[in-house]
Model the fold of this input.
Amino acid sequence: MNPNQSSSSTPPSKSKPSDPQTPSYYYHPSPSRTIYSDRFIPCRSSSNFALFNISPPSTTSPATATPPSSDSTRGEENPSSSAAYTALLRTALFGSDLGFGGGSTDKKSNPGGGSTVNRNIFRFKTETRQKVESLYPLGFDDQLPGVSQSPVKAPRKVPKSPYKVLDAPALQDDFYLNLVDWSSHNVLAVGLGNCVYLWNACSSKVTKLCDLGVDDSVCSVGWAQRGTNLAVGTSNGKVQIWDASRCKRVRTMEGHRLRVGALAWNSSMLSSGSRDKSILQRDPRAQEDFVNKLSGHKSEVCGLKWSYDNRELASGGNDNRLFVWNQHSTQPVLKYCEHTAAVKAIAWSPHIYGLLASGGGTADRCIRFWNTTTNSHLSCMDTGSQVCNLVWSKNVNELVSTHGYSQNQIIVWKYPTMSKLATLTGHTYRVLYLAISPDGQTIVTGAGDETLRFWNVFPSPKSQNTESEIGASSFGRTHIR
Done:
């Protein structure tokens, strides 16, 4: 019988797994029994090996085995090598459990010698899955020289040095401020003292956007998601909207009593967080300075981020609290109190809906992950240093964190394992500022050492067509003003 074909006289539904006492054509399956399939799939571990012209294992070693018949060894100079080869081939094809001997048997004489278990080749209930080790006849301990059992993908290499450094005089060393942001049009905004400067990443051109005067200073900057509008938070509690393409101030909005250190845009709204403990929701199209006031924090608001679907706003404060608000709430809908230091670092995952990461200050040093959909704390990673910023890659499921006391490092993490892909150093002060390029490949970091450093940390998008517009022409160290 051809082992790859079933008998035409026995329909598939009449076959019985194994009972040598009962013919299969008298067997009627019970309706309660599991019907595995309507196809016959042969199982090698219960095959009749005589059909494959492979002799069963001998009770003697291959070196002392009885030589096969002249027909089977015609042209062979060493019959023992043929037996050894046959045994190796049998193990490679059928594994170590070949079905010879043991169990309930109905033994018949094997033309090659010995006896085999004559079981139906179309046996469904025999376990066919084998360990990986059984697929290698020589085993893992006896690997052939120069043969790799499984190819290992080389880890991605992250350059350990910045490809560009900008001098940024008067860049403040203040944990609660947010003075760097990168626009969708590839323009970097930096607050230096009482001025805001723009650096075009394509042309490396520097433009002075505004000067607030000696009585005011820049505490935060934030680009709108689309267009060229830039929000500037000041130490006097005001928020200015500037059209960067024309270097013209569009509007000034009030409402805060103290400095505005955090800004976050969604598609149409601008949120501002202040030292006065409040968050104001603003609509630049409306006549009023703000449309909602969010109350809940007991200390300065230093972190603000809208989710990618613009439905949830996460806020962090110097009260060690992380809150989540929806579009219409004036009180937090979720409250997380596990951090033991100020929460400035906040990042929403672009890959998993409702996944939020937050980082704590010097007394905490932890990055925590939250599922805002189920209101659950997922995991915690102690980084060993003050967590100043977090940003998620939009190209791969990785994130980067910047740190202050005491190591001033930049770490690239693989999520969800939180294994370190790279640790970058170079700043001599706390790495308080972080922004990511619109193509998702490059980050810029700023510190109290008055430098901005550009790093290539993330891979390009899968659908990339061209390289980053920043290009090799921007290498070197220059001044932003």
Summary: Confidence is low (pLDDT under 50) at residues 1-27, 61-76, 98-128, 463-475. The first strand starts at residue 107 and ends at 109. The radius of gyration is 35 Å.
